[in-house]
Design a protein that fits this description.
CATH topology: Alpha-Beta Plaits
Structural class: alpha+beta
Order of helices and strands: EHEEEEHEH
CATH class: Alpha Beta
Strand content: 35-45%
Shape: elongated
Strand order of the largest sheet: 2-5-1-6
Radius of gyration: 17 Å
Length: 113
């Protein structure tokens, strides 16, 4: 079992969710987050003064998958979130030691779905 965390551009969310759905990965948690990467924020002009913003709006996706769905999930996210510009995001893949579905008490890969 793996836990996939992806940080993407907000305007790509609908496209990424559609790609995940096509890959038969409908279970997802989505959060609006702030962060910065190599682009180190943005520069804006406000009343003639340049101001550097240090955090940008991003969307964080969290997906728990069984081993067979790791590669399809990564492919779905990368193919649909990529613009080719700096700030497209990152994908983190972590080992998931255990999962428990609260409603039924199922554990492990059966709890993921």
């Amino acid at each position: 079992m793996k836990y996939i965390i992806a940080i993407i551009q907000p305007h790509k969310l609908t496209e990424v969710m559609g790609a995940l759905e096509k890959a038969n990965i409908p279970l997802i948690t989505v959060s609006n987050v702030l962060g910065r990467g190599r682009q180190k924020g943005i520069t804006q002009t406000y009343r003639g003064t340049r101001e550097v913003g240090s955090l940008l709006q991003k969307v964080k996706l969290e997906i728990a998958v069984n081993e067979d769905f790791v590669a399809p999930a990564i492919e779905a996210i990368t193919s649909s979130a990529k613009t080719g510009d700096i700030g497209d995001g990152k994908i983190f893949v972590l080992d998931l030691h255990d999962v428990m579905r609260i409603r039924t008490g199922e554990k492990g890969s059966e709890a993921i779905g």
